[in-house]
Amino acid sequence: MGVAAIEVTGLVKTYRLGDVLVEALKGVDLSIPAGEFLAVMGPSGSGKSTLMNILGCLDRPTSGQYRLDGNEVGDLSRDGRAILRRSRIGFVFQGFNLLSRLSANENVELPMIYDGTPTADRAERALSALASVGLADRGHHLPSQLSGGQQQRVAIARAIVNTPALILADEPTGNLDSSTSEEIMGIFQRLNDERGITMVLVTHEQDIALFAKRVIRFLDGRIVEDRQVPDRRRPASGGSGAS
User: Cβ distance 88 to 165 under 8 Å?
Assistant: First the structure.
């Protein structure tokens, strides 16, 4: 697996809403070393989701630079950014984004279908990814047959099945109770600690942010706080069960 290192310099993003220009990002500078676990906080409209969209190659900045592994992402074509998303970045969302008619196995296989991975390899890798989040015995279940926590585990398995160097998680515990949230955060910590996957997590919850190694806070399109977490939270359960 490769290593992600993010460098953002002078990042500006401006949207036009009718006759009004909205500055979502106002010259953001940010360095995220490989293997970091970063939590991004801030009120709605502060710029954190805009940053995540740019880091995930889902949007382009108005100006400024975004380098991933030393490569300028802004120079890539639309197809180039799509290939980068598939090969280097895993996404986990608040709403799970699983296809209801597909089993857990089939949902996890989806990124490999887009990559043209042979069928036999897809099945083996999907099972391995599900096993790594404690769901080896739930592969044939539909999302409707799984709890919210189990559905989010499937989403994490889907995010890691192509061995990304970077995972972007947008409010991944927003639909979960506190105990299940701890277990999900434990999985993220384990993937970060054991596999060296760089994690960038958006959250509104201070207690969830404390699972990270570092926290930045956005306000009005700028980073107003950047601090290390001296005493990180750890899940009481260890984050490996299948609840």
Answer: yes
